[in-house]
Amino acid sequence: MKRKKLLLVSVLIGVSFATSLSTVLIYNRISKNSAHNFSVEQQNIPTSFASMSEVNFAPTDFTAAAEKSVHSVVHVKTKYKIKGQSLGMGNPFNDPFFEYFFGQPQGRGRQQVPEQEQQASGSGVIISDDGYIVTNNHVIEKADEIEVTLNDKRTFSAKVIGADANTDIALIKIDAKNLQPIVFGNSDNLRVGEWVLAVGNPFNLTSTVTAGIVSAKARNINILNAEMKIESFIQTDAAINPGNSGGALVNIAGELVGINTAIASQTGSYAGYGFAVPTSIVRKIVSDIKEYGVVQRAVLGVQISDIEDKLAKEKGLETLNGAYVAAVNDNSAAKDGGVKEGDVITEVNGVAVKSVAQLQEQVGRFRPGDEIKIKVVRKNKEIELNIKLKNRSGNTNIVKGADISTLGAEFEEVSATLKYRLGFNSGVSVKSVSKNGAFAKAGIEKGFIVLKINRQTISSANEIEAAYSNALNSEDDDDKVLFVSGVYPNGKVVHYIVNLK
Q1: Residues of the chain with CATH 2.40.10.120
Q2: Which of 124-138, 306-320, 417-431 has the lowest mean pLDDT?
């Protein structure tokens, strides 16, 4: 049996050398000896063409595109604090495995490390002359302070306007005027094989430009950890590294076509492939955040899957393209519009969709209340349906941004040691509780670790805000409730009901 290597996917946020370089997740496996050498002789490739005038060559001088875009890309530096952890002093009783099974020993030479400040860096793209900047959610989600350095070396403090974990896009703002915003391009027009440039600040090396091609579109790499994630990445071989997160992917006209987000790597550094959120998604997310303070997310209300050969044979499908509808939810836009279990969705508003990722990208461009036309294949016959999209609550209302401060609680990350001791990989700790807040009225106390809200796993304060917003915007007063499940550091599991009426 051939030996296998793990291929890793890494978010591109650059971290100071005092901390880890990047976050890595297992993505796929590749064979150890997958490379092959080809020669002209072996492949019978002709060394000349009958008519060179019939061949169109793309320009390979990228200076104009680089000059046009580099002044719109900024360096984003963040500071955040991590909770101190108890460190052992050479005592075997301080071993974490001993602590996990027998609890924390008392008075056995343990030393509490104080709260530590960490630094990280990424990139951002100026989208307006008055200081709005788009970046990745993972660049700023833990930040206590955000500093933005322009290409001309001026430095500003930035504030977060809004963020969306489902697409890993965030909008921040600096107090500045007469900036040079980037020009938005149309990511739909990108073709596989087309030249693109990646502009960012890898390893704190500012204003770095690299070139490559679009190697794939609508790529789903399963890196986002969010309930309603949309992954339809542009894949490129332009060299990008930790620190490129939030930077620009531009075409040869210098227009923004994507926001660089992740890399596929065995080491955490560039190894051939990078992934960017297309501007078709970025434009919608940023527009919603600016106008409403929260993303207006339309849903079809179906359970879908990609069509593999096995599924096609099992269901008697004559196509491998599209998204297979495994189930249709009650009170959903899809059900109202006539979608049925077993349908294959192949088109949205005249745009062909060949996969779940492409379908999610197309639907993600719309808001609740928008009407779209979809084509489905049903019993191998094509049918066109009119769909009026809804939000996840089953209505067409505009979702209002929720002020999480009304919960009367501050949140912080749970230390790795505590997660390990309690046996959980997720959770957010309640740092403080105000006397008149909704959490205090429900009985939640300082130190409580929120694990689930309304049956959804919680891993960040952003997810608490999303759950709060969904409940608050429900049409039914009976649904304006948070069912909060969690655990205290002593291991006591508790469930609370937080009334939002």
Answers
A1: 1-35+62-296
A2: 417-431
| Six token digits for residue 18 | 């005092």
Three-state DSSP class for 443?
Answer: coil
Q: Please, are residues 368 and 390 in contact by the beta-carbon 8 Å criterion?
A: yes
**Residue 232 annotated as catalytic:** no
Please name the residues in contact with 402: beta carbons below 8 A apart, sequence gap of 6 or more.
294, 465, 468, 469, 472, 473
Residue of 123, 138, 460, 469 with catalytic role = 138
CATH number of 302-388: 2.30.42.10
Contact in structure between 373 and 209 (CB atoms under 8 Å)? no
CA-closest candidate to residue 255, choices 316, 190, 163, 203: 190
Cβ atoms of residues 159 and 204 within 8 Å: no
Q: Is 432 an annotated catalytic residue?
A: no
Question: For 185-208, how does the pLDDT look when each residue is reduced to its tens digit (9 = 90+)?
Answer: 999 999 999 999 999 999 988 889
Q: Does residue 482 contact residue 453 with C-beta atoms inside 8 Å? A: yes
Q: Over 90: is that where the pLDDT of 243 sits?
A: yes
Q: From 2.40.10.120, 3.30.70.920, 3.30.830.10, 3.40.309.10, which CATH number describes the 1-35+62-296 domain?
A: 2.40.10.120
- Rounded to the nearest 10°, the torsion over CA 131, 208, 234, 58 is 110
pLDDT tens, 330-360?
Answer: 999 999 999 999 999 999 999 999 999 999 9
pTM score, whole prediction: 0.73
Please state, in angstroms and as integers, the Cα–Cα distance from residue 158 to each residue in 148, 402, 456, 486, following that order.
7, 21, 31, 33
- When pLDDT is averaged across residues 89-102 and rounded to a whole number, the result is 40
User: Is 477 among the residues known to form the active site?
Assistant: no
**Catalytic residue of the set 22, 121, 245, 265:** 245
Residues 132 and 180 sit within 8 Å (Cβ to Cβ): no
Residues 23, 254 contacting (CB under 8 angstroms): no
User: Hey, which bits of 279-370 come out as E strands?
Assistant: 302-306, 323-328, 344-348, 351-352
409-447: burial string, b at 16+ Cβ within 10 Å, e else: bbbbbbbebbbebbeeebbbbbeebeeebbbbebebeee
The top-level CATH class assigned to 404-499 is mainly beta
63-80 confidence digits (pLDDT tens): 999 999 999 999 999 998
Catalytic residue among 121, 123, 168, 232: 168
As annotated, the residues of the chain forming the CATH 2.30.42.10 domain(s) are: 302-388, 404-499
Rounded-to-integer distance, Cα 162 and Cα 454, Å:
23
Chain-centroid distance, C-alpha 106: 42
| pLDDT for 11 | 57
